[in-house]
Amino acid sequence: MSDSVVSHSIDDLSLIAKQIVLESRSSKVIVFVGELGAGKTTLIGNICHYLGVNEYLGSPTFSLVNEYELKNNSGIYHFDCFRIKSDEEMLDIGWDDYLQQNKWIFIEWPEKIQNLLPEHFLLVNIKVVGENRRIEWEML
């Protein structure tokens, strides 16, 4: 089942973030697809704030992963795979270990590691439509 919403402004993202988190409860892995500048990082920031992150650092473009602790002894790993060149590079940073932990995993540019994605995850697709963003999500 697929859901979608149109975001007319950045103010809409708090509600959209809540909807996405509620939809993804069966899998804590969420992948974000969209062109450069579509708003993937901004939406992830809103999701992080909804989950309880007070200080969001933005996209981990150069570090590949940012980690955030949550009050319930859980946490969030935010990956930006834009610069990943091979599956081996992702495996070398401990990808399998990240997947084994009971933490949220948010992935920008998942097409770069398509072979390494878990069997089930929530796919969030962001499309720019004029001044708006169409955000669709589906559990795979």
Describe the overall structure.
With 140 residues, this protein is α/β, with parallel strands linked by helices. It has a single domain (2-139), classed as 3-Layer(aba) Sandwich (Rossmann fold). It has four helices and seven strands; from the N terminus they run βαβαββααβββ. The chain has helices at 13-23, 40-51, 87-92, 95-100; strands spanning 2-7, 29-33, 65-69, 75-80, 104-108, 122-129, 132-139. A seven-stranded mixed sheet has the order 1-7-6-2-5-4-3, with helices on one face. β6 and β7 form a beta hairpin. The radius of gyration is 14 Å and the shape is globular. The model has no long low-confidence stretch (mean pLDDT 88).
Summary keywords:
globular, Rossmann fold, 4 helices, 140 residues, alpha/beta, seven-stranded mixed β-sheet
What's the short story on this structure?
This protein is of the alpha/beta class and 140 residues long. 25% of the residues lie in helices and 31% in strands. It has a single domain (2-139), classed as 3-Layer(aba) Sandwich (Rossmann fold).
- Low-pLDDT residue spans: none
Q: H/E series, N to C?
A: EHEHEEHHEEE
Mass-distribution shape = globular
What's the N-to-C terminus distance?
A: 9 Å
What is the oligomer described by this structure? Answer: single chain
Which bin fits the share of residues in helices? 25-40%
Q: CATH topology, which one?
A: Rossmann fold
* CATH architecture heading: 3-Layer(aba) Sandwich
CATH superfamily annotation: P-loop containing nucleotide triphosphate hydrolases
Total individual domains: 1
What structural class results from the helix and strand content?
A: alpha/beta
Main β-sheet, spatial strand arrangement: 1-7-6-2-5-4-3
At the first level of CATH, the class is Alpha Beta
Beta-strand percentage? 25-35%
Mean pLDDT: 88
- Count every beta strand, where a strand is a DSSP E run of 2 or more residues: 7
Number of helices: 4
Sheet bearing the most strands, described? 7 strands, mixed
